[in-house]
Design goal:
By secondary structure, the protein is of the alpha+beta class. It has 6 helices and 11 strands.
């Protein structure tokens, strides 16, 4: 009788182990996310929580993203869209993957640990849509990249015009000036006359 009970529990354990990582098997640890914009095609970048660009392109486009940043920690992303009036931001949300509930029902605690370790414990929303108006979209990749890059830069320096010129080369030219060192003053104790005589010789 004891052997029968042990054998039954062993069979349950083997069955649960075979289904371990239910979310990992069914949905995986990476998700296809569609990035779109309500106003039409525009350039975008997907950034992680450390503001590193993980993907960029022109909407609509499907990107593949990891659902977890670390064990038991979901990945966090936000999408930045290029508009003629500047960048537009949208958050890409993550939530618990309910395939993990299969492990709880069966009692497969190892499976929950596997799902958490592989990142399958979390899932990403299937689609994120920006709100750049149609008259403000930037579909050219080079121009869009410049818009997003300019958002983080300090921009071009402006010239100081407070008495230092207007920024035009011709306006910054000043007439030469000479100090009076007795070269032209005949009354400067006779030094001007002697100096002029030396130059004429």
């Amino acid at each position: 009788c004891w052997n029968r009970i042990v054998g039954r529990w062993l069979l349950i354990f083997v069955f649960a182990s075979s289904l371990s990582g239910c979310a990992t098997i069914v949905s995986g640890r990476r998700y296809e996310v569609t990035v779109d914009n309500s106003g039409g095609p525009t350039y975008f970048s997907v950034l992680d929580k450390e503001n590193h660009v993980v993907h960029s392109g022109v909407t609509p486009q499907q990107v593949t993203l990891k659902s977890s940043a670390a064990p038991f920690r979901p990945a966090k992303y936000h999408v930045v869209y290029a508009g003629q009036d500047g960048p537009h931001h949208s958050e890409l949300k993550s939530s618990v993957n309910w395939w993990t509930a299969g492990n709880i029902v069966i009692g497969g605690v190892p499976g929950i640990v596997i799902d958490a370790g592989t990142g399958a414990l979390w899932k990403l929303q299937p689609k994120v849509v920006g709100q750049v108006p149609s008259q403000m979209v930037v579909s050219n990749e080079a121009q869009g990249a410049a818009v997003l890059a300019g958002h983080s830069s300090q921009g071009p320096a402006t010239a100081d015009v407070s008495g230092m010129g207007t920024g035009r080369p011709e306006d910054n030219v000043r007439p030469a000036s000479f100090e009076n060192r007795g070269l032209t003053d005949p009354d400067s104790t006779g030094q001007g006359e002697s100096t002029a005589r030396r130059f004429s010789q």
